[in-house]
Write a structure and sequence with these properties.
319 residues; alpha/beta; Rossmann fold; 2 domains; seven-stranded parallel β-sheet; five-stranded parallel β-sheet; 12 helices; 14% strand; globular; binds glyoxylic acid
Length: 319
């Protein structure tokens, strides 16, 4: 008997075939709509493996329903959508897809940083809406990127990849991390600073930490107030790390100059969210790792992790 697997979103055929060779697959047939919770609750009862996305909340209540589940394979590097402790207690393995999305996510983070600093979406809109009347001495002026100071909070793989890009723009790179990374500092010419100094001294602050109870609301009004009035906050990590109400107030009050967000506490962010009314906010719908090649790699890694676990091996990316 082949193990039973549920895939929570329609995936490309080559990924499905890879899993189907060893498993009996049930798949939610839509790529743009998440699997409804009640369907997930019904299906989880007798499956051996779950291939899921960050849009699914895999909490203790759901895991309690599972009778045979051996592995939850998340097609993402972040896994704050999964109660890993509850899974551990039940002997269920949890895996993620680190590594393959590092450079793509760093590219997007830098793109968002540049788009925010140079007001690219706003400038494009001025042109398209017919408001472009003439070249203007101070029209649509933004902040310089080259030579500026970038502060990276969280020096993991993606933080490092962002630092490398920043060096190409002659930026001074500060970082703060739970532990100092001396080898990385030397190799990339980074400077370790305490959290408050990073906020005070940076022209750009990039949030790159995982989302955990410790990092929830890590950036709230007090932290935003420490930043320069000309500074820009970029978050491509997870929504809840930055307090959205405080960010709204800080952007509105001119405590910081602008922000670029790829992530929100609630996703998709409601269209009525106050942040979306602000001109000094550039937003994206959580597309950090969204290149064709990288999403295929992530799907392949997630499939391999799933199969390894179901074949009794220790998956490469066991959390
Ligand atoms: C996406 O946000 C991921 O964690 O891979």
């Amino acid at each position: 008997m082949k193990p039973k697997v549920l895939i929570t979103r329609k995936l490309p055929d080559e990924i499905i075939s890879k899993i189907e060779r060893a498993c009996e697959v049930t798949m939610w047939e839509y790529s743009d709509t998440p699997i409804p919770r009640d369907v997930l609750e019904e299906k989880i009862v007798d499956i051996d493996g779950l291939f899921c996305m960050i849009s699914e909340t895999i909490d203790e209540g759901l895991l309690e329903k599972a009778q045979n589940l051996k592995v939850v394979s998340n097609m993402a590097v972040g896994y704050n959508n999964i109660d890993v402790e509850a899974a551990k207690r039940k002997g269920i393995m949890v895996t993620n897809t680190p590594g393959v999305l590092t450079e793509t996510t760093a590219d997007l983070t830098f793109a968002l940083l540049m788009a925010t600093a140079r007001r690219i979406p706003e400038a494009s809109e001025v042109l398209r809406s017919g408001e472009w009347k003439s070249w203007s001495p101070l029209g649509l002026t933004g902040q310089d990127i080259y030579g500026a100071t970038l502060g990276i909070i969280g020096m993991g793989r993606i933080g490092e990849a962002i630092a490398k890009r920043a060096k190409g723009f002659d930026m001074k790179v500060l970082y703060h991390n739970r532990n100092r990374k001396l080898e990385t500092e030397d190799r990339l010419g980074l400077q370790f600073v305490d959290f408050d100094s990073l906020l005070k001294e940076s022209d750009f602050v990039c949030v790159m930490t995982p989302y955990t109870p410790e990092t929830k609301n890590l950036i709230s009004y007090d932290q935003l107030k420490l930043m320069k009035n000309t500074a820009i906050l970029i978050n491509t990590a997870r929504g809840g790390i930055v307090n959205e109400k405080d960010l709204f107030d800080a952007l509105k009050n001119g405590e910081i100059w602008a922000a670029g967000l790829d992530v929100f506490e609630e996703e998709p962010v409601p269209r009525s969210h106050p942040l979306l009314t602000l001109p000094n906010l550039v937003t994206l719908p959580h597309i950090g790792s969204a290149s064709i090649a990288t999403r295929m790699k992530m799907a392949n890694v997630a499939a391999t992790n799933l199969l390894q676990a179901l074949q009794g091996e220790t998956p490469l990316n066991l959390i």
